[in-house]
Each structure stands twice: as structure tokens, then as C-alpha cells.
Specification:
The structure is a homotetramer of 289-residue chains.
Chain A: E1 23-30, H1 33-39, H2 48-64, E2 68-74, E3 77-82, H3 93-115, E4 127-134, H4 137-166, H5 172-179, H6 184-195, H7 204-208, E5 210-218, E6 229-230, H8 239-245, H9 252-256, E7 261-268, H10 276-279
Antiparallel strand pairs in A: 1-3, 1-4, 2-3, 2-5, 5-7, 6-7
Helix pairs in contact in A: 2-3, 4-5, 4-6
């Protein structure tokens, strides 16, 4: 058969499995969004429509990929946390990465007219992505702290920067010069004394970014509810292995009854650096050191 | 600074460079397009609108990524060939793969209304992708032969299959049973004798797929032409290395004058298994064994 | 300079870092040791000289590589556990793997005459190796349980097998047939009733393998002692990062005073499947889930 | 069974195949051989015993690994070239790399007393290794040119350096200072005028390194000869694929008759930067661009 003698070229396709039992974070970034935001006249320092469109796409990704427990977005980037035991596409890296990136992009483009009804897309936006493996709960906490701290720093800078330009009449070069070397408190003070802006009163969406979390709403059988649902963490191998993996988990017996947890997906703008967010959502991390 | 103490999490981002001086083939596949084609009522066995939309997206990818020399598409998949010396994104795998996949998806969704003016998208389509490295010209030739042979085989099967259903009144189960074990000549005969279809008269688009090729139209300085342009193959390293890599290439002196080659991107439906296609386009392969 | 124009070939050397903060297990296996043990007339079912030579080589590896906390050996294989925070050779996989494998081999060959004074080496023995990353304490416990359980199973089988041959006069084929399908208790019974061997009285070296552990003997300054010493776990990044990584560790302050822990390397033949071994040596695992 | 419930830990062993149809170069380097050569009183600038011991180990590696076509050694390093179509250990990287490194080490230690009869090993020498994939003949040529050019440069420098010390009475610091910034011709002149040494008369072993090559000695059936033998390059996949890979090879018909080529392994000290070495040995490269 004609196809057969060429089919050996599949031997060049190399496997790319991700390490089992390790958290996966997939981070997407807008490709050349500096230009994209200018061409589509995004409001500065923050365009709420653009941020809500990012949230919209990210939320749809979480509806589609049940093993994503948490996402965090700011500006033109979004990070997705997969449960460490996910076996999505047998943990093949390129498959997970491209499917997610493509679906996010598709949701973004398809959702655009709803959020920008008066601004047609002038050219196709795109995103790049990467997957990073994190072996510990601590590293996951620190990863999300890193992104939220970054949001804080960027937003404070941008808020003053654009106030200097839009209200203070400076050029962008002048505004950068004005801000060079200033610490956080100076920026707060500058905002308040020159422009009457109390930074603390700025929307949490801008200061804290978007936190999209899979919340457990009940433990009733999945059949009764319309919302998306997950199973308690299945282990990545067979039953015997999972008994070994976490003998002390009392929920294993429930798992065997295949009780599904009702979950909902919520968009928040809250602190995720401190402990409270995580302590009240023990299902996000899996604590099997 | 708040961001700093968490920034160590970047240490978990591992490098993923692709081997230098090796052809890269990036293949995209529609994700669950069996369902997608049904939900959007694609014509069977081939929907010309859908195929043209794929070509549209692929052509735009080639306009955006100058180092893609050739693409081949059939059904819901497309393969893109990068020149072996491309240094796009320093050959970082995830970066190349996701940017291309995302851009293709974006072009597909944004282009949809033009090709399906009466069929709104019911949900976001998506694609998965992979990059495969091929070290030799031979393997590249065989890769594209593999895909075009596959197109042939699938199209012949599907053409008879849907004729049996649409014109012969069979169910899908019956049609599969009718075709089981039949060889190519039997299918041709069946098409002609039962349904009066001469397979050879079917559109080359369906029989041969879509071949999108970067053609060299002239060697005049790029400034004069409106079309996209490429430079003659730059080597992947510095000047000294490239002198070593291909001492006998007479074009190196031109390269130093930065003469750009005028190129155009053409969509063809021609044979790429035989030698002619390749012999008339020596720029596609780089012959440095 | 002559060397320079060719030096671009180094660009083909791709990075191969291991994921940070993840346990590394390096397992070595004798290459074709079935034949090697016959050619050098190893005693069956266990050759104490050969096992002690393996221990000798492994112990020397642990003296050389300070970040190995534990090793486990049976037959012609040895597994080495690196602390999860090791930064040996910047965690380059091939470098760690080959250096360790080569050093072990060298110790084995150089040590041979001491353990086999009357049997000259007839040809060069060799070992293959691999590194596996394990993200959790649980996986490490299970890894070593897997190897020790394997030791148990193999040794019981081999003990009966060779008794059937050496004392029972069976051929190897007959002995395998006799044992086919027998459970553990049957094998114990067979040993005792046919050959008067009480399996429980067999040397722990054979039943449990060799456990080579880095023990902490004191916390006095390293200068006073002759034994090898380690520092309390340094984190893999800079100071700021490590503060983040393990805020609750009271020992961090000591680490800053550069107190070194006195350690010794002990060869044991004890159970490592149960909890006791690990609970009494909390320094082996690092408990930062 | 006890072993089973832990066996899931094997899931953490990730595949590491090398790209098919790509040349593999495995380079070994002595680990801390600066110290090793001092402790064992190697002659300076070159110790012929040490170099011959390296050749001995490398030659034995080539006898053991039939798919190595060529090796090049200088000082404490050796590079081995595997044919591009080798399927050794299914091209698993760690397996090939460690087995070769371990076997080389074993040969080195076991061969030591023959080359250093009066100098017992004071501690175990070891080597690190890496595998680099090269897709083209050009890159292979340049790789070996790189190593031999390096040999030239180092040997000229070391020859003058040690003459300045041994015959000129300089300290090492003074000798380095004397040589700083000198070009090749100055070093030649310095050797001749100050010490009466004609560099061109120095042994080729020192100037050109060791070239160990698998030569084809005849094409008679292997059964008649005692030497090692190889088969003509089998392709890495099944017959159909290999027909596609190299249709024009007339030797394929012989391959099917399983004619083995008689080969011998020769140690040379010749130029490998120019074309002659390669043109007279067309079997070293496989020319399938």
C-alpha cells in the first residue's frame, strides 16, 4: 500500500512525557501584544474589556480541561495549574500545551466581538505557551506569588506612568525618567499628591489580577447537578499503586464509590500570596510530600 | 522588591532547544474535528469551504513565518516545513510550536465567516500540534510523500464510501462492509460502474491535497517588490562557522550584500511524491549532506 | 586560529538539566553479569565476595559524592539517592550519570583483587546506569521498597532453585519446573522439609541486600573529625529563594554559620520497607511537600 | 506479591531516545586528570604510556561496539563516532552513554599495569561522557577537525611551555608569561632557536592525536576471518523503509545475502582535517543528504 513504505518517518516522532506526580503550570503570553494593544486602542494603564476577554477565554479553558484547578491572569498572560496527578493525554507535553494554547486562542478570537463590540479585529492575535513542572506545594505557592507580586509591581508603575502622561502632560520618556529609581511608597505618594489618586481605591482587578478557581460546591453525586464536576484525585497508575501512594487518605474509599464532587468555576480578584486563600481550599494542593 | 524573592521559580523552566541544522516539520491536527465537521454540517466526502479555510490559515502562517518553505494540507491537518537553518526563537521548541499553532487557530477562527458565511461557529475549534526533526533531505521527501499518499488513500476510500451512502442508499455500516478488503482498482471500478464517477476527474484539491510553496520569483533587491521575501539561507551561527559549513556555495558573496530574494506563496494541488516538484524547486531542500 | 572556525560544532551540544528540587535516583546494573558471574565462577545462589565488592565500590562512590544520602544494592545492581537539593554539576544529567557510573566501575575493577584474590579478571566488567527523578518522599520510600522487595523475592527463589540443583540433583530446567507457580510459603516449606534449610536463618545480607547510609554522627565543626561531612541542606538557589522555600526550618540560622555535620557512611543489611529506618533518619528525606 | 505494589515507581523512568538517522558522537573526558596526571607522574608535555593506554581502552571499546566507525583521542579525551543508522540499545541515550563510558573506564583500569608497570594506581580514575547528535556529514567532518585542530594548538603550546621550564629553567608562571600572545610561527621559532627542537620532527602521535578507524579489509564472508566484521549499513527500520531510504545503493542486494564485510581496527596518527582521509574511506560517512 502506497502509504506504508513512507510511514517509517513516524519513527522520528520522539516521546515527550512529563514527569508523573508533578504539578504542571501552563503559562500563556500574548504574542507582540504591545503592538496589538496599540492597534486596537486598549485603554491605558488597564483596559477592562481586554482583561475580561482574557478571563472569558481562561474560564472556558477551565471548563474544557477538568484537571485545571486554578488559573491566574494579568495583562496579556494567564497561568494554568494542573493537578499533579493529571493524566491528560498521558501527560504528553506537546499535546497538552498545544491543545490548551489553541483552545484559549480560539476562545479569545471568538469572544472578541462581545467584549470589543465597536472594534473589529485588525489582524489575528496569538499567544505563546510553555509548560513548567513543579514538584512541591511550596514551589506552586511561590509560583503564583511570583505572578501576583509581578502584577502589583507592574500595575503600580503603570498607574503612575500613565497618570504622568495623561494628566501630567509628560512624554513617555519623561515619565520613565520621573519614575527611575523610585520605591513603592514614593509612587503611592506621587499618585496621591500630584493626581489625587488613592492607589488603594483602584480596582482589585487591576491590583491583584484575576484568580480563576475551581471551587468544590458539594459532594453529591454528579448526576444531579448541571455544573462541571471532578473526581477526587485519581492516582496516575493502577489501584495497587495508588494504595501505596497515599495510604492515609480516608477519601480513597469514597473514590472507589466514584462519588463526583460538584465544582464551580469562580473568577476572583483576591490575594493569593498569603495563606488564607490556600488554607480554605485544601483541594488545590495535594500535600503528599 | 516583592517579586524578587519568588523569582527563583523560573529555575524550573528547562531549556528545550531543537537540534541545529535539522529540518523541522510542524504538523497541526484539528482537535475532535469529526464532531466539529458534523456540528457545522461539512459536505461529505470533502467540504471545499473547509479546505479553503485551512489553506487560508496556512497561507497566512507562511506569510508570518518567513522560514517556512512548504506546507501540505489535507482534511483537518497541515504540515509546515521550516528550513533546516532556521533560527526562529533560537529554535526553542515550545515557543515555535505554540506561536505557530496559536496563529493558525486565530486565522482559522477569524477567517471562518468568509468561508462559511451562513454557518456561525457553534463553539471554538482548536488544533493540536507537534514538531518533528528530520535530519536528511530523504526523510523530508518521504515525510511529504507519506502525507500525500495518505491523502490519496483516504480520499479514494471516502469518495466511494459516501457514494455508497448518498447515491447507493447504504448505511455507514453497510458501506464500510462493502469496502472491507477492497484494493484501489476495485474502488475505482466500483465508483465508475455503480455511480458513473471517474475518479480521475475528481478535483486535484481532493485527490492531492493542498501544497503551499514559497516560490522564488526574482533576485532583485527586495525594496522593489510588494511580495514577501527571504534571504538566501543564512547559517545558524556566526560568519566563521557558516564559511565552514558551506565553503563551496557561490551565493555566500551575494548573501553578504544582503540581496533578498523575491518570493511569493502559491497554493497548488500537484504531485509531490515524484521528483519533478522538488527538482524544479532546489531552494526547498538544502543539500548539504 | 585553526580551532575557531570549527568550534561552532559545540552548538549541537544540547543542555540536559534535571528538574530542580526533585530527588535523583541513579541506578547502576551490571552489563551482561549473567555471563560475567559464570566466567568468574561466582558462588550460587549468592557470592559473598562479589556482593562485598559491590558494597566496596558503592561506599567509595558515597565518599566521593557527598550529596548521596543512601544507596541500596542487591546482586549486580546499586541505586544511589541524591538529596533533592543537590546542585552537583548544576544538575546536568549526563555529567552526573557518567561520572558516577565511571567512578563505580573504576572502584569495582581496582578493588577486584582484594575480594577475588585467586580469580584474575578475564575481561573488563561494565555497568549501565540511568537517573530517575522522583518528586515526592512517598515515591522515594516506594522506590527503595520496590528494590528491597525484589531482593526478597529473587533471593527466596534462587535459594530454593540452587538447593534443588546442588543438593537435590535437579537440572536447571527441572528446578524451574519444580518452582513454577509456587507461593512464598511453599518455597519456605520446601527448603526446610527437603534440605533442612531455615530461610529465616540465612544471612540478612542475602535476604535484605545492602543498605549504605550516610549517618549523622555529630554536629561539631568539621575540622575536628576525620570522617566525611555534609552541610545542612543548602537550597538550590540564592539566599532569598531559600528563605522562601523553607521558612519554618529552624536550622537555617545554623546553616549560615556554616556548621558542618559530621557524617559517617555505614553498611547495613536491615529492613527499609517499614517506617522505622526512615523515622530514625529524618535527614534522608526532606519533607518539604 | 510484595514487589508489585511498589513497581509503579517505574512510571517515573522517562524515555530518552536519540533522533534516528543522525550521527552520534560520544566524547569522554578524564575527570580531574590534571591532578591524576600529577599524582601518577605523567611525563610532560606528553606521556606516551598514558596516551597508549587511552588508545588501548578506545580500541577495545571499538571491538566491543561494532557500530563505532571512528575514534579520535588526544590527552585525556576520546571521541567515538557511531554510524548514523546504528540501532544500538534502540538508541536509548543513557544506555549507550553509560555502557560505553563504563567499558572504557574498565579497560583503562584493567590495562593500567601493562602501560604503567612501575606505577600502581593510587586511586580510581574516572571519566565523564556526553553524546552529541550531528545531522550532516559536514558537521561530522568539522567535529573531528575541531578536535584535531585543538590537539595541534595544545601540543604546540605545551611543547614550548615545558621546554621553557625543563630546559629554560623558567617557572610555570614565567613560561605562561613568555608565551602570552605569541602566534604559531613565533612558538616554532622559539623552540628551534632556544632549544634546538624542530617541531615538525616531533612524533605525529603528539601533534595529530590518535585516529582509530574501522577499515574494511575485504568483502569475503565473515566466517573465514578472525577479525571483527560489520554488515553494510542496515537502515534503521524495516525493509520497505530502507528501500525508500537509499534506492540507488547497489550493495543492498549483497546486504540481503548477509555478506559481512571484514573489518580491522587500525590506530593511526594522521591528518583528518583534509579531504584525503575521508575520500579514501567512503564507508565512514553515509552520504545520504
Amino acid at each position: 500500500m502506497a502509504g506504508t513504505k513512507f510511514a517509517y518517518v513516524r519513527n522520528f516522532e520522539l516521546p515527550d512525557p512529563l514527569l508523573p506526580d508533578t504539578y504542571l503550570v501552563c503559562r500563556l503570553d500574548g504574542h507582540s501584544f504591545h503592538r496589538f494593544s496599540e492597534e486596537h486602542e486598549f485603554a491605558k494603564p488597564n483596559d477592562e474589556r481586554a482583561l475580561k476577554l482574557m478571563d472569558h477565554a481562561a474560564k472556558n479553558v477551565m471548563i474544557e480541561f477538568k484537571d485545571i484547578m486554578l488559573a491566574f491572569g494579568e495583562s496579556d498572560e494567564f497561568s494554568f495549574l494542573f493537578r499533579k496527578t493529571t493524566n491528560l493525554y498521558n501527560r504528553r507535553q506537546a499535546k497538552i500545551l498545544t491543545t490548551l494554547t489553541s483552545y484559549f486562542t480560539s476562545c479569545y478570537v471568538l469572544g472578541w466581538p462581545e467584549y470589543f463590540p465597536e472594534t473589529p479585529l485588525r489582524y489575528p492575535p496569538s499567544f505563546d505557551g510553555r509548560i513548567v513542572m513543579y514538584p512541591t506545594d511550596r514551589a506552586i505557592r511561590d509560583y503564583f506569588s511570583w505572578r501576583q507580586a509581578d502584577t502589583h509591581i507592574n500595575n503600580l508603575y503603570n498607574t503612575v506612568f500613565w497618570a504622568l502622561i495623561q494628566k501630567g502632560g509628560q512624554t513617555t520618556t519623561e515619565a520613565h525618567a520621573t519614575l527611575r529609581g523610585t520605591v513603592s511608597s514614593t509612587k503611592h505618594e506621587m499618585l496621591y499628591s500630584r493626581f489625587g489618586i488613592n492607589y488603594n481605591e483602584i480596582s482589585d482587578r487591576f491590583k491583584k489580577g484575576s484568580v480563576i478557581v475551581r471551587e468544590i460546591s458539594s459532594e453529591r453525586p454528579a448526576a444531579f447537578g448541571p455544573s462541571t464536576s471532578i473526581q477526587p484525585p485519581p492516582q496516575f497508575t493502577n489501584d495497587k499503586a495508588s494504595q501505596v501512594l497515599d495510604p492515609p487518605r480516608p477519601k480513597r474509599s469514597k473514590a472507589k464509590k466514584k462519588v463526583k464532587l460538584e465544582t464551580t468555576i469562580e473568577v476572583l480578584h483576591c490575594d493569593i500570596i498569603g495563606d488564607e486563600f490556600w488554607l480554605t481550599r485544601p483541594h488545590l494542593l495535594e500535600n503528599q510530600s
